[in-house]
Amino acid sequence: MAQHKENKLILGVDVGGSKIAAALSTTKGEILARGYNPTLAQSGPNAVIDNILMTIEEAISQGKVEAEQLSGIGIGAAGIIDSKSGKVILSPNLPGWQEVPLRDIIQQHFNIPTYLGNDANLAALGEWTFGLKKKVANLIYITVSTGIGGGIITNGKLYTGASGAAGEIGHMTIDVNGPRCNCGNIGCWETLASGTALVREAVRRIAQGEQTFLVKLVDGDMSRIDAKIIFEAAQQGDKLAQELVSHLGFYLGVGLVNLVNIFNPELILIGGGVAKMGDLLLRPAIRVVKERAFKTGVNTVKIRPALLGDDSCLLGAVALVLEYLEQ
Length: 327
Description:
Blueprint: E1 9-15, E2 19-26, E3 31-38, H1 45-62, E4 70-77, E5 80-82, E6 87-90, E7 98-100, H2 102-110, E8 114-118, H3 119-131, E9 139-144, E10 148-154, E11 157-158, H4 190-193, H5 195-207, H6 214-217, H7 227-235, H8 239-263, E12 267-271, H9 279-292, H10 295-300, E13 302-305, H11 312-325
Parallel strand pairs: 1-4, 4-8, 9-12, 12-13
Antiparallel strand pairs: 1-2, 2-3, 5-6, 6-7, 9-10, 10-11
Helix pairs in contact: 3-11, 5-8, 7-8, 8-9
């Protein structure tokens, strides 16, 4: 006998550069069990795939269910993803991954319908489906961490573009004379407004002799400076750290101006590790939007922290499966 929709179980997977997370969920986004394992990305595709399988099995075991009770498996991964063919075309977080048929590998192993999407796109879908309960029709989700990713909901649909590669907002050019990006381009948004950009600027200014107790916080080891430590110093009143976060907020705002002018969204949600800086980062960003974006867009948009925290992509992977089940 077929399960009622409310009783169906879905497994979501988030394949990150350092960690793989899996969650056993109901169709309402209630997480019943979890699994975690290191990605071990440097070990190559086969090792990572083994870890994905192990993490899925861990979540199933923790949930005390059998694999055949799952209605579907959804997977989010960073990079260029072809959802139609189920392949990871290229991923900056996963060395050696080119045209890897991840969907089919997982589907064949568990004999469960499996679906694959870009992690930031799925995070947008997760926030929209389970965070906002689909009450907003035009939404942009941004993740600000090591890099910048994004997902776009337009008229109640995830916008993926002509070949599934839409939403790479971290790679719009902000400064034609800016730093070189890992993608090969120059002056991408993520080279100026990501956690990596924040750390690079901190190290540069300390090397120029600027006074800060950041040096003391890392015992003089510049390699230990990260976004979290800069935020801590800023909260404690360190002038340089506060300037750095404000500077990051400015460049975050410049990118947001473009998104407001192009998409005219009702809501922009900002997630990712760097976004945990809250008002210290968002206040200068919102100020730039108010100063530079078209007033019609400014008057419409709200800019808020993401609602689902670190579970945005996991629940987005669940939402992806739901979309197929409802077709």
